[in-house]
Amino acid sequence: MLLDANSIFYVFLPILAPVIAHFGWNPIWFGIMATTNMAIGQVTPPVAVNLFVGARISGISMERIARPAIPLIIAAVAALVLITAFPEIALFLPRLMGML
């Protein structure tokens, strides 16, 4: 998609809210999962807004700034897989704070 994260949330959240409720998913877990997805999407092509901003501010090329970001993207994808497979990871702090 060629939308920024805020636009995606505004467009799809009203559509997905009933789906989340129907399947009995925790909305906090879904929000954390969706936000992690958006963060990964903002760093990877075709959008890569965060990389473009970093390259522009630092004055170095996009290729030079993208290479060090690869391990961070891999770590974010691994975290997303863990959060998706084990929702308890994402819900640990809200439970600890008494929000659930």
If you had to describe this structure to a student in words, what would you say it looks like?
This protein is mainly α. The chain has one domain. The chain has 6 helices and no strands. The chain has helices spanning 5-23, 27-43, 49-58, 62-66, 70-85, 87-96. Helix 2 (27-43) packs antiparallel against helix 5 (70-85). The radius of gyration is 16 Å and the shape is globular. The termini are far apart. The mean pLDDT is 91.
What is the count of helical runs? 6
Low-confidence stretches: none
Shape: globular
Q: Oligomeric form of this entry?
A: single chain
Largest sheet: none
Average pLDDT confidence is: 91
Q: How much β-strand is present in the residues?
A: under 5%
Structural class: mainly alpha
Domain unit count: 1
Counting DSSP E segments of at least 2 residues, the number of strands comes to 0
What's the alpha carbon Rg, rounded to whole Å?
Answer: 16 Å
The helix/strand series, from N terminus to C terminus, equals HHHHHH
C-alpha termini separation = 33 Å
